[in-house]
Design goal:
Helix content of chain A: under 10%
Radius of gyration of chain A: 13 Å
Radius of gyration of chain B: 13 Å
Number of helices of chain A: 0
Largest sheet of chain A: 7 strands, mixed
Structural class of chain A: mainly beta
Number of strands of chain B: 11
Oligomer: heterodimer
Strand content of chain A: over 45%
Largest sheet of chain B: 6 strands, mixed
Protein backbone atom coordinates (compact mmCIF):
# COMPACT_ATOMS: atom_id res chain seq x y z
CA UNK A 1 0.00 0.00 0.00
CA UNK A 2 1.04 3.54 -0.65
CA UNK A 3 1.80 5.56 2.45
CA UNK A 4 -1.76 6.48 3.33
CA UNK A 5 -3.33 6.06 6.71
CA UNK A 6 -6.78 6.90 7.93
CA UNK A 7 -7.93 7.47 11.47
CA UNK A 8 -9.98 6.33 13.14
CA UNK A 9 -10.57 3.04 11.35
CA UNK A 10 -13.91 2.51 13.05
CA UNK A 11 -16.22 4.95 14.75
CA UNK A 12 -19.69 4.81 16.24
CA UNK A 13 -21.33 8.12 17.00
CA UNK A 14 -24.73 9.57 17.67
CA UNK A 15 -26.87 11.73 15.44
CA UNK A 16 -26.07 15.40 15.81
CA UNK A 17 -22.51 15.01 17.01
CA UNK A 18 -19.53 16.35 15.06
CA UNK A 19 -17.11 13.85 13.59
CA UNK A 20 -13.68 14.39 12.05
CA UNK A 21 -11.87 11.83 9.97
CA UNK A 22 -8.20 12.17 9.21
CA UNK A 23 -6.21 11.13 6.18
CA UNK A 24 -2.43 11.23 6.33
CA UNK A 25 -0.05 10.59 3.43
CA UNK A 26 3.70 10.23 3.26
CA UNK A 27 3.91 10.35 -0.56
CA UNK A 28 3.90 14.14 -0.96
CA UNK A 29 1.14 13.83 -3.57
CA UNK A 30 -0.64 16.98 -4.60
CA UNK A 31 -4.19 15.66 -4.85
CA UNK A 32 -6.21 14.18 -2.01
CA UNK A 33 -9.77 12.95 -2.11
CA UNK A 34 -12.51 11.81 0.22
CA UNK A 35 -15.00 9.23 -1.03
CA UNK A 36 -17.87 7.40 0.57
CA UNK A 37 -18.77 3.88 -0.43
CA UNK A 38 -22.28 2.55 -0.08
CA UNK A 39 -23.83 -0.65 -1.45
CA UNK A 40 -25.00 -0.21 -5.02
CA UNK A 41 -23.34 3.19 -5.43
CA UNK A 42 -19.69 2.44 -5.86
CA UNK A 43 -17.49 5.28 -4.70
CA UNK A 44 -18.85 8.80 -4.65
CA UNK A 45 -16.60 11.80 -4.33
CA UNK A 46 -17.30 14.05 -1.34
CA UNK A 47 -14.53 16.65 -1.54
CA UNK A 48 -11.07 16.87 -2.97
CA UNK A 49 -7.97 18.99 -2.57
CA UNK A 50 -5.52 20.12 -5.21
CA UNK A 51 -3.07 21.71 -2.81
CA UNK A 52 -2.67 23.15 0.65
CA UNK A 53 -5.74 25.22 1.47
CA UNK A 54 -7.17 24.45 -2.00
CA UNK A 55 -10.29 22.32 -1.86
CA UNK A 56 -13.43 21.81 -3.89
CA UNK A 57 -16.72 20.01 -3.70
CA UNK A 58 -17.49 16.66 -5.19
CA UNK A 59 -20.70 14.87 -6.07
CA UNK A 60 -22.05 14.42 -2.52
CA UNK A 61 -20.62 17.29 -0.47
CA UNK A 62 -23.72 18.37 1.47
CA UNK A 63 -23.19 17.95 5.21
CA UNK A 64 -19.41 17.62 4.87
CA UNK A 65 -16.53 20.04 5.09
CA UNK A 66 -12.80 19.54 4.59
CA UNK A 67 -9.55 21.22 5.43
CA UNK A 68 -6.00 20.82 4.27
CA UNK A 69 -3.44 22.86 6.20
CA UNK A 70 -0.49 20.65 5.31
CA UNK A 71 0.37 18.62 2.24
CA UNK A 72 0.20 15.40 4.18
CA UNK A 73 -3.11 15.82 6.00
CA UNK A 74 -6.67 16.06 4.70
CA UNK A 75 -9.48 16.24 7.23
CA UNK A 76 -13.13 15.43 6.60
CA UNK A 77 -15.64 16.84 9.07
CA UNK A 78 -19.27 15.95 9.52
CA UNK A 79 -20.52 19.02 11.35
CA UNK A 80 -23.64 17.28 12.66
CA UNK A 81 -23.71 13.61 11.81
CA UNK A 82 -26.88 12.04 10.45
CA UNK A 83 -27.81 8.40 9.98
CA UNK A 84 -27.55 8.85 6.20
CA UNK A 85 -23.84 9.46 6.68
CA UNK A 86 -23.32 5.94 7.93
CA UNK A 87 -20.87 4.63 5.38
CA UNK A 88 -17.34 3.55 4.68
CA UNK A 89 -15.10 6.52 3.96
CA UNK A 90 -12.00 6.25 1.83
CA UNK A 91 -9.22 8.71 1.36
CA UNK A 92 -7.22 8.63 -1.85
CA UNK A 93 -4.23 10.46 -3.25
CA UNK A 94 -2.83 11.06 -6.70
CA UNK A 95 0.09 12.87 -8.22
CA UNK A 96 0.28 15.94 -10.41
CA UNK A 97 -1.11 14.19 -13.49
CA UNK A 98 -3.98 12.54 -11.62
CA UNK A 99 -3.54 9.31 -13.49
CA UNK A 100 -3.69 6.79 -10.68
CA UNK A 101 -5.30 6.95 -7.29
CA UNK A 102 -3.93 5.24 -4.21
CA UNK A 103 -6.41 4.46 -1.50
CA UNK A 104 -6.26 4.33 2.24
CA UNK A 105 -7.71 1.42 4.24
CA UNK A 106 -11.02 3.13 4.94
CA UNK A 107 -12.98 4.28 7.96
CA UNK A 108 -16.23 2.58 8.92
CA UNK A 109 -18.59 5.13 10.41
CA UNK A 110 -21.86 4.21 12.07
CA UNK A 111 -24.20 7.03 13.04
CA UNK A 112 -26.90 5.92 15.46
CA UNK B 1 -24.67 10.56 -11.86
CA UNK B 2 -22.27 7.73 -12.39
CA UNK B 3 -20.09 7.56 -15.44
CA UNK B 4 -19.08 3.95 -15.38
CA UNK B 5 -21.35 0.98 -15.08
CA UNK B 6 -19.92 -2.48 -14.63
CA UNK B 7 -21.56 -5.60 -15.93
CA UNK B 8 -22.29 -8.12 -14.53
CA UNK B 9 -22.93 -6.99 -10.98
CA UNK B 10 -21.79 -10.39 -9.71
CA UNK B 11 -19.88 -13.24 -11.28
CA UNK B 12 -19.11 -16.68 -9.92
CA UNK B 13 -16.61 -18.98 -11.64
CA UNK B 14 -14.40 -21.98 -10.92
CA UNK B 15 -10.68 -21.70 -10.35
CA UNK B 16 -8.80 -21.88 -13.61
CA UNK B 17 -11.59 -20.33 -15.65
CA UNK B 18 -11.40 -16.89 -17.21
CA UNK B 19 -13.43 -13.99 -15.83
CA UNK B 20 -14.65 -11.14 -17.98
CA UNK B 21 -16.12 -7.92 -16.66
CA UNK B 22 -17.41 -5.03 -18.70
CA UNK B 23 -17.63 -1.32 -18.09
CA UNK B 24 -19.69 1.21 -20.01
CA UNK B 25 -19.42 4.96 -19.71
CA UNK B 26 -21.24 7.94 -21.04
CA UNK B 27 -18.92 10.81 -21.90
CA UNK B 28 -15.47 11.40 -23.36
CA UNK B 29 -12.55 10.15 -21.35
CA UNK B 30 -8.80 10.63 -21.17
CA UNK B 31 -8.21 7.27 -19.57
CA UNK B 32 -10.00 4.37 -17.94
CA UNK B 33 -8.71 2.44 -14.99
CA UNK B 34 -9.58 -0.78 -13.23
CA UNK B 35 -9.29 -1.26 -9.49
CA UNK B 36 -9.68 -4.27 -7.22
CA UNK B 37 -11.12 -4.19 -3.73
CA UNK B 38 -10.77 -7.09 -1.36
CA UNK B 39 -13.40 -7.34 1.34
CA UNK B 40 -12.91 -4.69 3.99
CA UNK B 41 -9.95 -3.10 2.25
CA UNK B 42 -9.21 -0.06 0.14
CA UNK B 43 -9.11 -0.10 -3.63
CA UNK B 44 -5.94 -1.15 -5.40
CA UNK B 45 -5.06 0.12 -8.86
CA UNK B 46 -4.71 -2.67 -11.42
CA UNK B 47 -4.28 -1.14 -14.83
CA UNK B 48 -4.76 2.07 -16.78
CA UNK B 49 -5.63 2.34 -20.46
CA UNK B 50 -5.54 5.63 -22.30
CA UNK B 51 -8.15 6.77 -24.77
CA UNK B 52 -5.76 6.23 -27.70
CA UNK B 53 -5.03 2.64 -26.70
CA UNK B 54 -7.16 -0.37 -27.59
CA UNK B 55 -5.65 -3.13 -25.51
CA UNK B 56 -3.30 -3.48 -22.61
CA UNK B 57 -1.88 -6.44 -20.71
CA UNK B 58 -0.50 -6.85 -17.22
CA UNK B 59 0.27 -10.37 -16.07
CA UNK B 60 -3.01 -12.31 -16.16
CA UNK B 61 -5.01 -9.14 -16.85
CA UNK B 62 -6.10 -7.98 -20.24
CA UNK B 63 -8.00 -4.74 -20.72
CA UNK B 64 -9.63 -3.54 -23.89
CA UNK B 65 -11.10 -0.17 -24.65
CA UNK B 66 -13.57 0.70 -27.39
CA UNK B 67 -14.10 4.45 -27.36
CA UNK B 68 -16.66 4.26 -30.19
CA UNK B 69 -18.86 2.10 -27.98
CA UNK B 70 -17.76 3.80 -24.79
CA UNK B 71 -16.95 0.48 -23.21
CA UNK B 72 -14.09 -1.45 -21.69
CA UNK B 73 -13.57 -5.02 -20.61
CA UNK B 74 -11.32 -6.61 -18.03
CA UNK B 75 -10.30 -10.21 -18.58
CA UNK B 76 -8.65 -12.20 -15.82
CA UNK B 77 -7.20 -15.41 -17.18
CA UNK B 78 -6.71 -18.63 -15.23
CA UNK B 79 -8.45 -17.19 -12.19
CA UNK B 80 -7.45 -18.11 -8.67
CA UNK B 81 -9.32 -18.06 -5.38
CA UNK B 82 -7.21 -15.03 -4.45
CA UNK B 83 -8.84 -13.10 -7.31
CA UNK B 84 -12.10 -13.10 -5.36
CA UNK B 85 -12.84 -9.40 -4.90
CA UNK B 86 -14.88 -6.52 -6.25
CA UNK B 87 -13.64 -4.88 -9.41
CA UNK B 88 -14.33 -1.27 -10.31
CA UNK B 89 -13.77 0.74 -13.43
CA UNK B 90 -13.05 4.45 -13.13
CA UNK B 91 -13.01 7.02 -15.87
CA UNK B 92 -11.04 10.23 -16.01
CA UNK B 93 -11.25 13.20 -18.31
CA UNK B 94 -9.16 16.34 -18.40
CA UNK B 95 -10.15 18.80 -15.72
CA UNK B 96 -12.60 16.39 -14.20
CA UNK B 97 -12.43 14.01 -11.30
CA UNK B 98 -12.40 10.23 -11.36
CA UNK B 99 -15.82 8.64 -11.65
CA UNK B 100 -16.31 5.09 -10.41
CA UNK B 101 -18.90 2.51 -11.36
CA UNK B 102 -20.76 0.37 -8.79
CA UNK B 103 -18.44 -2.60 -9.33
CA UNK B 104 -18.55 -6.29 -10.16
CA UNK B 105 -18.27 -8.84 -7.36
CA UNK B 106 -16.17 -11.76 -8.51
CA UNK B 107 -16.20 -15.06 -6.65
CA UNK B 108 -13.66 -17.67 -7.67
CA UNK B 109 -14.57 -21.05 -6.27
CA UNK B 110 -11.86 -23.62 -5.50
Amino acid sequence: DAGITQSPRHKVTETGTPVTLRCHQTENHRYMYWYRQDPGHGLRLIHYSYGVKDTDKGEVSDGYSVSRSKTEDFLLTLESATSSQTSVYFCAISGDFQETQYFGPGTRLLVL
Amino acid sequence: SQQGEEDPQALSIQEGENATMNCSYKTSINNLQWYRQNSGRGLVHLILIRSNEREKHSGRLRVTLDTSKKSSSLLITASRAADTASYFCATKNYGQNFVFGPGTRLSVLP
